[in-house]
Amino acid sequence: MQNADAEYGALIFNDEDQWKVEVYGTAEELHIESVTLDDAKHIVPTAIIGYTARTQEEVVLHDALGNGMFERNKYTKNKEQKSVLCLPIIHQNKLIRLLYMENNMSKGVFTEERLYVLKLLSSQCAISITNAKLYLSVQYLKNNLEEQVEECTRTLEKLMRATSEALSEMTV
Q1: Neighbours of 71 (CB within 10 A)
Q2: pLDDT at 119
Q3: C-beta of residue 47 within 8 angstroms of C-beta of residue 84
Q4: Among 59, 132, 142, 159, which has the highest number of CB atoms less than 10 A from its own CB?
């Protein structure tokens, strides 16, 4: 948010085909909680978020109240928004995140230069998040595999004991 000169921002994740606001707030007060987009009308402008999610196109409004497309939006009116940015974060041709930012003090804040930097940071972020998810998946599989091996070992030990007891009874 500091690099983009934004006052407020949010990071929206696609979780099993449902969009959720995972992080939102200002640089001073950041909230980390999972809120479905349907319940986030007071947190982000869901119309802008929904438009970006559907079209996978960035939305840059240099004067949100003067823009015909979203000027009637309740969130935009209530916050008296000036500059708005909603950036799709695409990794391997798949939309995985949305970055939302706003500045209610100045118009035209999200310039081409800032947008370029945000796109660069966002693509690196997407790669890092994807790698972290892969790492967690590998750890989960490893832990489950170890548990399965232990369970199989216990079962084999029981079977071997039962077999040896049966053989000893037969020899007696």
Answers
A1: 14
A2: 85
A3: no
A4: 59
**CA 100, 33, 74, 18 torsion-angle sign:** positive
Across the chain, mean pLDDT equals: 84
Q: Where are the domains of the chain?
A: 8-134
Q: How confident is the model over 62-92, as pLDDT tens digits?
A: 887 776 677 777 887 777 778 888 999 888 8
Say whether 107 sits in a helix, a strand or coil.
coil
* Stretch 42-59: mean pLDDT: 90
DSSP per-residue string spanning 14-64: EETTEEEEEEEE-SSSEEEEEEEGGG-TTTS-HHHHHHHHHH---EEESSG
- CA 5 vs. chain centroid, Å, equals 22
Domain 8-134 has CATH 1.10.10.60: no
Long-range pairs of 66-71 with CB within 8 A, sequence gap ≥ 24 = 70/45
pLDDT of residue 21: 92
